[in-house]
Design brief:
DNA polymerase, domain 1; 3% strand; single chain; mainly alpha; globular; 15 helices
């Protein structure tokens, strides 16, 4: 019987082959535009320099969006694009509204404008242009926002418990969810894992060419190791159709796609009755936040998460509010009752060492932000 609020999950046998449907070749609406040829030459240059296809795909979308905007206004050649034209395009992005009526975020606007600066710099270097009209374009100031939703430990355990290990697919899903929560891998990194990337004896996961094409080694928890070992023995052999090196396989015996990983996480969130925005990245956020609240150093989290800069990891110091609340209650003088003169019990995280804990880094960041918010800039405090 399904639990209250849970849909009935039907187990089915893995298909022997995936039906392939012929894809219709749709005509490119921008094929006639002369700037497309310059864009393709630019991407060929980036491939030679070693840029990944994932980076090229994201930049291609940004450049095609700009070329489509130029096509609507009769701009055919790169020489037709001037600094006022680019400023007009920047205002277009600022006032643009999506189908749901929401504006583009600052990060999305930067994602549309930053590839343009690189493209026009390349056009000047290759002598297609005499000057760079995008050299003085100021990108929008990015905003450092907290994650929209954070999963508690109880919510994570509820999500993991919804994967039924009694079925082939449920056991695979449980091993996948445990892997994501234990290691904090991105969905792309989890989908691209191969069997030889996991060292069961040393409890290590080798992430090859993660974000930024950087390799790293991540430890695997004991519970995740147990579920992964059971998946490799019981579930994966039944999912194999042809010889595959991928660690996690789909119902058709193929390597998982990043979208498939997110779909699985979102589905088990629905089974657990958790309606929060996000999917696989929520487990990554939860892993970092829960480890930080338990006393993990922020630089250790930087290595585990694969962040190139420490500032990217420090966002999780803002999220661990329970840890900061304990420090606040123990040190702030404004209290309902005054503490006695007797020695109080030590508070976790309140260390009298010379090292700077995450809370000190947070206070230093707040002080730096106060210095940056100069009233002469016209920005609100």
């Amino acid at each position: 019987m399904p639990r209250k609020g849970q849909t009935l999950k039907r187990s089915r046998k893995p298909a022997t082959s995936k039906p392939l449907l012929p894809r219709r070749q749709e005509a490119d609406p921008l094929a006639h535009h002369p700037m497309v040829a310059y864009m393709q030459a630019h991407f060929e240059h980036l491939r030679v320099r070693g840029y990944s296809e994932h980076t090229l795909k994201s930049r291609r979308g940004s450049l095609r969006r700009f070329i489509a905007w130029c096509d609507e206004r009769g701009l055919q050649q790169p020489a037709d694009v001037t600094k006022p034209v680019l400023e007009r395009y920047q205002r277009h992005l600022f006032y643009y509204r999506k189908a749901d009526g929401q504006p583009l975020t600052h990060a999305s606007q930067v994602g549309c404008l930053a590839p343009l600066k690189v493209w026009f710099k390349w056009l000047v270097r290759e002598n297609y242009l005499l000057f760079n009209p995008a050299s003085e374009i100021d990108l929008p100031k990015p905003s450092k926002k907290l994650p929209r939703a954070i999963l508690s430990i109880q919510e994570v355990e509820a999500i993991l418990a919804k994967a039924d290990p009694g079925t082939v697919h449920g056991l695979r899903d449980r091993a996948l969810l445990e892997m994501l929560y234990s290691t904090g891998l991105r969905r792309m990194e989890a989908a691209h894992l191969a069997c030889y990337d996991v060292d069961l004896h040393r409890r290590l996961v080798f992430v090859r060419e993660g974000k930024g094409r950087r390799d790293r080694v991540v430890p695997l928890g004991e519970r995740a190791l147990a579920w992964l070992d059971r998946y490799l023995l019981e579930s994966r052999p039944q999912l194999i159709v042809t010889e595959q090196t991928a660690l996690f396989l789909s119902d058709y015996g193929e390597p998982l796609s990043p979208a498939y990983v997110s779909l699985k996480v979102k589905r088990h969130m629905a089974y657990a009755g958790i309606n929060k925005p996000g999917s696989s990245h929520l487990l990554r956020h939860a892993m970092a936040t829960h480890m930080l609240e338990a006393g993990a150093d922020v630089r250790i989290l930087q290595a585990l998460l694969g962040h190139a800069q420490l500032s990217t990891t420090e966002i999780y110091t803002h999220v661990s509010i329970d840890h900061l609340r304990a420090i606040h209650d123990a040190t702030h003088p404004a209290k309902l009752t005054r503490p006695t003169e007797t020695a109080s019990a030590p508070v976790p995280g309140l260390r009298a060492t010379a090292t700077r804990p995450p809370e000190a880094a947070l206070l230093a960041a707040l002080a730096a932000e106060q210095e940056d918010d100069d009233p002469a800039d016209g920005e609100p405090d």
